[in-house]
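Re: beginner question about structure tokens

> Can someone show what the tokenized structure looks like for a real chain? I only ever see the sequence side.

Sure, here's an example I had lying around. Input first:
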Amino acid sequence: MTGHRYLHYDVFTRRPLAGNQLAVFSKTAGIDPSVIQRIALEMAFPETTFILPPETDDTDVRMRIFTPRHELSMAGHPTIGSTFALANDGVIEPDRDRLVFGLGIGPTSVSLEWAGDELAFA
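And the corresponding structure tokens:
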């Protein structure tokens, strides 16, 4: 298996090594869909997200959320954490006031508040 870059976040905290762990794979090109669940199991975090191109015109990105054992149709901490990861990765520009994820439950809008070029609140 080839290597894939991911971002490790501690969600709902400003302190390292606190909060809820989250792995975000923001560039999923080349990851075989059949191994995504196995990657989440290997990460062993409460959730791991995989960002994909949008499937519909009313969303900005598609996101799949996995626990080590199951795919979730929606979950709050991975949605918020992935929003910060995408902002820090430059996928979301600082002038945007919302992002729409394509989740298993359908389009899910996240409001964005910025402090200059840094995402302050989602």
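Each token stands for a local structural state, so reading them left to right follows the chain. The chain has one domain: 7-121.
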